[in-house]
């Protein structure tokens, strides 16, 4: 299976990181929650796989299209 | 030699065959290697009939000293075509001849900004479809003319007035530079393949002017123009995808502004209840939802086509049908910037509303907007001016607007969602919430002095907030007819369809060019 990098759809703050590196996840699982303009924006896995790297930490400010999670 | 039918027809046949060879096998092979079709292949793949005009027009290829090298077909191919079942004027540059340069070397331009194909669309009031691939003007043109000419001698009236008369659609595959890039954006819908580039000036020019080295895709690739600048509406996987996208967009639009948009099939029942909406819109107000899913639940099955999906993403725009009636759909997207209107989202709304108004497509607006975007970036990009232009575009739209209040509606941005000087029909879901400012924060700002003076400021603020929250109950607004109707989201489709059907009487009797086309905005 190919790897995939999930990016931020909006400038936001990383509110909660739910997944950990090494976790096995399924397509649609919520990996982290961003917070922007008082909205909680779930970041979901876009394929089945294993979380290879989490590229941000809780409290980080992220920009639009910033890389958040790498799945393999 | 005296005239004979045989000889003349043979010559005609020979010359027509020569036109099919384009700029030669070597240049055609290069286009194929790079995964692109030639202009003639594009026409063959996208049309069911094509009657060419200007087939024998030629370009005299000369070297730098003016010595003739070869006679090639001209660098633009155009004619009358059947495209997606519609009669259109269609043309495009031939990149294998002088990089698709403007046909200013001919007695009459074939197309590009104002040429035969533009005149055909104008005079017959039929859509214009363009395949754009060209380097724009070049120094060689100067040599042909024998002097340096001012570009301002060339009239821009035709390509501009076409925008208020007939649908103008364009796709870019390869490179669109300078004048060809300019031609590409004078359209109602534009699409480029992901391998293509568009710029005012390419990397060599940028290096000269600014001393910076930049990769051509970074400078003006498909991802940039459809994801950041918004100069081009949509991205396509490949040329066949781009052609399909243009054909889809044309299916919602009329032949011209004097005719009705074509009503599609009426196979999806008007009274189909969209049960899934209650799952799509979370009860937890801080959770966003998939805007495209919400829209698809309401409009006719498989009829939604998003325009500009990757730029200005806090706002979704697209064409759809409701009971077969082509409509423009706009929705705030709470998943990006909380749905706030920033400068880009405003620009996207303006462009889309103007297109709908020009071609008499009613607008359905799903509102969930916390306001104009705030913050340093928003101020730097003049969000307030762009936002008010969006308000103006809706105020000037000469089409019925049906507004659906989904959740939030706060601040001036709400003025860009309905027009109280016309019918101003707003249908509210019970999930709606609105006001000048959200209660949270709004109370803090509005009653700061009173709160600070209170014995227990925290308790006092909470008291004021509770009172304000009580007032913001959407049913209270409905009691005062401050919103026209409260509906069950599941019946949205039926109510909107009934009003759209009725509105067609107005649309049919208001055809023609917009009264207020492309007016100056603040």
UniProtKB/TrEMBL annotation, chain A:
<dbReference type="InterPro" id="IPR000089">
    <property type="entry name" value="Biotin_lipoyl"/>
</dbReference>
<protein>
    <submittedName>
        <fullName>Biotin/lipoyl-binding carrier protein</fullName>
    </submittedName>
</protein>
<dbReference type="InterPro" id="IPR050709">
    <property type="entry name" value="Biotin_Carboxyl_Carrier/Decarb"/>
</dbReference>
<feature type="domain" description="Lipoyl-binding">
    <location>
        <begin position="1"/>
        <end position="72"/>
    </location>
</feature>
<dbReference type="Pfam" id="PF00364">
    <property type="entry name" value="Biotin_lipoyl"/>
</dbReference>
<dbReference type="InterPro" id="IPR001882">
    <property type="entry name" value="Biotin_BS"/>
</dbReference>
<keyword id="KW-0092">Biotin</keyword>
<dbReference type="InterPro" id="IPR011053">
    <property type="entry name" value="Single_hybrid_motif"/>
</dbReference>
Automatic annotation (TrEMBL), chain B:
<dbReference type="InterPro" id="IPR034733">
    <property type="entry name" value="AcCoA_carboxyl_beta"/>
</dbReference>
<dbReference type="InterPro" id="IPR011763">
    <property type="entry name" value="COA_CT_C"/>
</dbReference>
<dbReference type="Pfam" id="PF01039">
    <property type="entry name" value="Carboxyl_trans"/>
</dbReference>
<dbReference type="InterPro" id="IPR029045">
    <property type="entry name" value="ClpP/crotonase-like_dom_sf"/>
</dbReference>
<feature type="domain" description="CoA carboxyltransferase C-terminal">
    <location>
        <begin position="269"/>
        <end position="506"/>
    </location>
</feature>
<dbReference type="GO" id="GO:0004658">
    <property type="term" value="F:propionyl-CoA carboxylase activity"/>
</dbReference>
<protein>
    <submittedName>
        <fullName>Propionyl-CoA carboxylase</fullName>
    </submittedName>
</protein>
<dbReference type="InterPro" id="IPR051047">
    <property type="entry name" value="AccD/PCCB"/>
</dbReference>
